[in-house]
Amino acid sequence: MAFVQFSQVSLAFGDRDILKNVSVNIQAGTKAALTGANGAGKSTLIKVMAGLVTPDGGSRVAQKDARIAYLPQSGLTHRGCTLREEADKAFAFGYELTAELERIGDQLAAKAANTKTLLARHDEILTELEASGWNRRRATAEQVLTGLGFSHADLERRTETFSGGWQMRIALAKSLMVNPDILLLDEPTNYLDIEARAWLERFLNDFRGGFLLVSHDRYFLDHTIQVVYELFNGELRKYPGTFTRYEQTRAAELATLIAQYEQQQAEIAKLEDFIRRFGAKATKAAQAQERQKMLDRLRQNEIVIPESLKKIRISFPQAPHAGNIVLTLTGITKSYGGEPVLRDLSLLVENGDRLVVAGHNGAGKSTLLRIIAGVDRDFSGELVSGAGVSVGYFSQDSAEELRGSQSILELLESESPLELIPRLRDMLGAFLFRGDDVFKPIDVLSGGEKSRVALLRLLLRPVNLLVLDEPTNHLDMHSKDVLLDALASFGGTVIFVSHDRGFIEGLATRVLELRPGRFRTFPGDYAYYMRRLEDEANGIVPADTDAAATAETKPSSNKQRWEAQKKAEAERRKTERAVQALEAQIAEAEANLKTAHNALANPAVYTDGEKAKTTQQEIDRLTARLDDLNAQWEAAAEQLERLSP
Question: What is the pTM (predicted TM-score) of this model?
Answer without folding.
Answer: 0.70
